[in-house]
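Revision sheet: structure tokens.
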Amino acid sequence: MHGTLYIVATPIGNLQDITLRAIEVLKEVDVIAAEDTRHTKILTGRYGIKTQLTSYFQYNQVKKTDFLIDLLKKGQDVALVSDSGTPGISDPGFTVIKKAIEEGIAVIPIPGPSSFLTALSVSGLPTNKFAFEGFLSNKSAHRRKQLEELKEEERTIIIYESPHRLLKTLNDILEIMGDIHIVCARELTKKFEEIRREKVSRAIEHFLRGKILGEFIIIFNPKHGSK
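Predicted:
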């Protein structure tokens, strides 16, 4: 009998946001495959989870996928977690999930926090239709081309951005889409949570005034109250 691969969502900041079911699964599986074992140890320590940890991240996922699939074929249960939120959403996970499905191994979701859905829920922008684009390209020309393609999009758009590229992306949005209304969210559920709802130009002015910290979620709708 094969084991089961559990895809376990973990808190995006506040450790109290973990579900009771997630704690139970993490305690009962044979191995937890974590994006950063040092980060996951903070969570497991908080809830008395003694399960063995192994790393599974972007640069070892090809090698580790075979290792995890072998464990699953031997009947061991494995929980996959990322540093925060739901594994496989702009995080490592797709490779082992796809392989497990191909091998006939049960893949069970343990739902929970997701940073982009958390931000969307309080954005004030239409939520009935939206498109999650993840991280745009770090190459300026390609990023601008992506934004040009999104310019006529009628759905609400959600993207991720790093602190060191935030101003470049905001300036690209301003130049390509005009001074549209956007939402910038960072450090969600944490002590320094910040959610700004304003025109792009105002956001640029704000973030030019100080050090930019934290990963960002940017939400905008080109056709909804944009000008």
